[in-house]
Amino acid sequence: MSTRVRLLSALVLSAVASLAGASEMAYSPVTDARLASPEPQNWLQYRGNYSSWGYSPLAQITDKNVGKLQLAWAFATGQVEGHQSPPIVNNGYMFVTTPGAQVIALEAKTGKELWRYKKQLPAELLQLHPTNRGVALYGDRVYVATVDAHLVALDAKTGKEIWVKQVGDWKALQYITLAPLAAKGKIMVGSSGGETGVRGFVAAFDAQSGEEAWRTYMTPAPGEPGGDSWPEGMYKNGGGSVWITGSYDPATNLAYWGTGNPAPWPTENRAGDNLYTGSTVVLDVDSGAIKGHFQYNPHDSWDWDEVSAPVLFDTEVKGKKVKAAVHAGRNGYLWVLNRAGDKLEFVDAHSYANNNTIKSVDPKTGRPNFDDARRPGVGKGDVKFCPSLWGGKDWTPEAYNPKTGLFYIPVNNNLCAELPEPEPIKYKSGDLYIGFPIEAILTGLRFPDGADAPPKTIGEIQAWDVKTGKQVWAHKFPTFNWGPLLTTAGNLVFAGGTNDRKFRAFDATTGKQLWEAATPSGVTGVPTSFEVDGEQYIAVQSGWGVDAQRMQGGIDLLMGQQTLVPQGGTVMVYKLAK
């Protein structure tokens, strides 16, 4: 037998063995009831629950023993660029996604690969953000949205493709990076593309057939509510993209989605508030109808996407009970909204990052009062504003811990930006639709006004008491922070996000660092926790790239340095040493 034949035979046998291993494990179908009340040992969706808490009720790993945390297993994905998806776990099955449109199923206890799916992408596809933020589980299927704007249904046990549906037009630079949201027989997705003139939307597809159920645009047409907030025709390419998974309240059947910036960035030709950009939008899941909204950045010109879905929890503010929707805005303010009924009403707002652009917030309506001198525009020359284009916080999710009652935010403080005069622009399908030179955007980071030296700290993790509106603690880093957060019942907060490749644990009550471990690359993945056979695990993907790498390049240019963070994706899973 030739060497080539032996190699092919070995590969076939390996594939058969892999599928056989998968079939030996029973798969538990994911129901609406399980998603509404997930078991503590599993992590069934993007932020662990529909309310987007980023919280694990598991408490075997605590602030007292986390120092004994050690690597249980690691799995190299074989891909580069930003690995941002959470390891999703359902009774022993783990699912991760990677750049390159791959879904990998692993045995959660051992890291053994069960199957791998890779969608064939068009060779000429331009990937502005080559990443993927995870899967949705529903029934016995795994759903993934792809960077070429498709939604794919896979068999959870085998990885076999069941159906593929086109969601958007990749040739017009529409693309999808978010993890789908599954609820009431529907799989919901949105489209990236705020810099390409995409008209933002949320679309729902039937989980069984893949047929489109509804599509709701985030830039309303004339005659629709909010349509008069756009000049004639501008809404058609107005931005408002949706590229982070929404929150959902099963009791009301309402989903809460964040929307991105308007397009193009300069405001001279788009008078009005430009609804529903820079907002949280409330959608009825059965029909897709818009029930309410709150706009954080009316008439935005700073690229302050507010795409992170609000975190939903019941609390008290100033002695009054509030069904809260809490959002740490890219504009540097922490927003507390009341979601009673199907509306969103302003309750309170607090500045959490250096801000010279919002002068005040109306105490009744919550409408920001912007300093127009800080608004880039025609005839203004170079305009500097804080926070930067990437905001006080970008897409990286916050976390809420019901035991401590604290709300945790990954922050970038002491960073501003500068933009020059806008350049003439006209929409053309397949081209960027920004209105400023791309070089100026990539090189426009600045330090705050009056700073004659680089700040001592930039990145932070902040803990806030929403009841009092006070910051409880802050852990500060010398570098910036691009780390999604996980908090647990063990009084812990886990995060990566720094350019030293470290993954860390903090005391959730005090902010004291308790543990750290180096990883092969920078950690911008969403951490999760799960339990198998009585043991609790902490899981995260290490893999630097995309905007974290771009921000590092901007800081390096500003400081006259060069920082190299190795790339390459690895699933890192930790447990307590015995």
Which helices and strands occur, and which strands form pairs?
Layout: H1 3-24, H2 32-36, E1 55-56, E2 69-76, E3 88-90, E4 93-98, E5 102-107, E6 113-118, E7 136-138, E8 141-145, E9 150-155, E10 161-166, E11 181-183, E12 186-190, E13 201-206, E14 212-217, E15 247-249, E16 254-258, E17 279-284, E18 290-295, E19 311-317, E20 320-328, E21 333-338, E22 345-351, E23 358-361, E24 368-370, E25 383-385, E26 399-401, E27 406-412, E28 416-419, H3 438-442, E29 445-446, E30 459-465, E31 470-476, E32 485-488, E33 492-495, E34 502-507, E35 513-518, E36 528-532, E37 535-542, H4 546-559, E38 570-576
Parallel strand pairs: 1-32
Antiparallel strand pairs: 2-38, 3-4, 4-5, 5-6, 7-8, 8-9, 9-10, 11-12, 12-13, 13-14, 15-16, 16-17, 17-18, 19-20, 20-21, 21-22, 23-24, 25-28, 26-27, 27-30, 28-29, 30-31, 32-33, 33-34, 34-35, 36-37, 37-38
CATH architecture: 8 Propeller
The domain tally reads: 1
Give the proportion of residues in helices.
under 10%
Per DSSP, the total helix count is 4
Strand order of the largest sheet: 1-32-33-34-35
In short:
The protein is mainly beta and 578 residues long. The radius of gyration is 23 Å and the shape is globular.
Structure write-up:
- A hairpin with a 5-residue loop joins strand 17 (279-284) and strand 18 (290-295).
- The relative contact order is 0.14.
- The chain has 4 helices and 38 strands.
- The strands form 10 sheets. It has a 5-stranded mixed β-sheet with strand order 1-32-33-34-35, with no helix packed on it.
- The protein has one domain (21-576): Quinoprotein alcohol dehydrogenase-like superfamily (Methanol Dehydrogenase, Chain A, 8 Propeller).
- It is mainly beta.
- It is 8% helix and 35% strand.
